[in-house]
Amino acid sequence: MRKASLATAPANSPRRSAIPAPSAIASRSPTTVRNARVFLAAQELHGSFAEYIWGFVNGTPRQHAWKNTQQVPVTTAQSDAMSKALKQWGFTFVGSTLCYAYMQAVGMVNAHNADCFRWRE
Questions:
Q1: Residue 45 lies in a domain
Q2: Which region, left, alpha or beta, applies to residue 93 given φ > 0 means left and ψ of -120 to 50 means alpha?
Q3: 4, pLDDT greater than 50
Q4: What's the pLDDT at 115?
């Protein structure tokens, strides 16, 4: 089954109107510009930004076996280290909680409960 995306939504679809104008995407806020420049510098030094970021988990996804959602932390030692390192680079808006959420989103950390059908994936 093919996932639908905003970019492929039919012209008459109500979802099509959810696509922001290009000027809204190309944000020129000082924070965005600064983070983009720092990103490029980190990417140049490390070969790829992914290589750098995955270094916080030694290149291997962290597999947890939480029994319930109350056990899932909002930060970890790895997200603390990532946040601190990114701030030292000059990134802004990169607190430990946001870093941990990012780590979950990109698959660096499996924070599903052990009884969740997604846990083994």
A1: no
A2: left
A3: no
A4: 66
